[in-house]
Amino acid sequence: MKELYEFLKKWHLTTPKEISKFCEDVKIEEVLETSMEAFIITQKARNKAIPGSLFNFSASCTLSGGNYPCEAISCRINHIAELAKFSSIYSDSTTIYNPFDFVYFAFNSSSKQQITPHTIRLEALNAFSITLEFKPLVERGLINFSKTIYVICTKCKKKKDKIINSIIDELEKIAEKTLFPLFKKSVEIEYEKDSFHLRGIETLIGEDFYFHYEKFPNYLIKNRKRINSIKDLQYDNPLIQKIITEAINSLMIQKIDNLENLTQTYLTTNMMEKTLLESMGKQVDNTALNFFAKGLPIIENMPYERIVEMRDVYSDQFKSFQNLVYDLMNKAKKF
């Protein structure tokens, strides 16, 4: 990914201030074109991973800096910072959702009208900020960007589509049977002025959730009255579908859609994703750990470069840690 950082240097996008000024002030066409060039570079980059390692991670869309459940840049960068701390210590390789993916859809004629100039500027700011934040880990090969474009023959595509559609069907069945009852049991709805709050949802998706609106949403009205309990919602309600679909999509994009990622350990703070993945069993991957990023020891207040250097200096201890985990996994299989 050396080419990517040379590209950022060429465009003077090497500090948060420069990135912010570029994404907010230059013409929207230039922001989009520059983002597209960066996207193409990431598609050409060769991802590094250690074959068969439990420490090859695939991070959820949220941990990758995605715009769900919060699209604020500060919140998204906080997720990235936590993932960077984790990966600097634990990973052999961590694949994140490609933050430049938005340009692929912006240039897609079928969805072009749906992406506003404001969204382009916001996503470009997020993508370049993420790239800068991860620089020492990307250069080391500990962080990789996922691929969006794959070239496969018609026969392989049909085979892949069949597998993917089968997994989506299974995930949707699990979601209705398992996640929906869990959601109704754990979450309550509270209304405020021009917004509603889903109290308790942070235990399921790892974040609190507020939804702001200009007009009161029809999906929260029943018999001309405002719905005051999640228990009154049906599974096909747009609010329920939005939250469950985000969990399914993150798994599909980061864990399953690229079938090579089936061998990667999935990294998430979302209990719904974890529940879906574990319920899939052998159809997905029952040999890898599926870590939560939260709750594991991390090193605070130390730059990523220094942590990586520390891994080199104390490589024997780091390898010993990995070997202990491997040994525990083998014992668990025989238990």
Structure commentary:
There is one protein chain. The protein has helices spanning 2-10, 16-25, 28-44, 73-90, 101-106, 117-133, 135-140, 154-186, 202-205, 238-256, 271-280, 304-313, 315-334; strands spanning 56-59, 93-96, 143-145, 188-192, 195-199, 210-212, 221-222, 225-226, 265-267. By secondary structure, the chain is an alpha/beta fold. It has a domain at 2-149 and 299-334. It starts with a helix and ends with a helix. It contains 13 helices and 9 strands. Mean pLDDT is 87; it is low at 283-289. The strands form 3 sheets. Strands 3-2-1-9 form a 4-stranded parallel sheet, sandwiched between helices. A 3-stranded antiparallel sheet has the order 4-5-6.
> What portion of the residues fall into strands of 2 or more residues?
5-15%
Q: Strand sequence of the main sheet, in spatial order?
A: 3-2-1-9
Mass-distribution shape: globular
Largest sheet features = 4 strands, parallel
SSE arrangement, N to C: HHHEHEHHHEHEEHEEEHEHHH
Query: What ranges have pLDDT less than 50 throughout 5 or more consecutive residues?
Result: 283-289
Terminal residue distance:
42 Å
Brief summary of the model shown:
This protein is an alpha/beta fold. The chain has a domain at 2-149 and 299-334. Helices cover 53% and strands 9% of the residues.
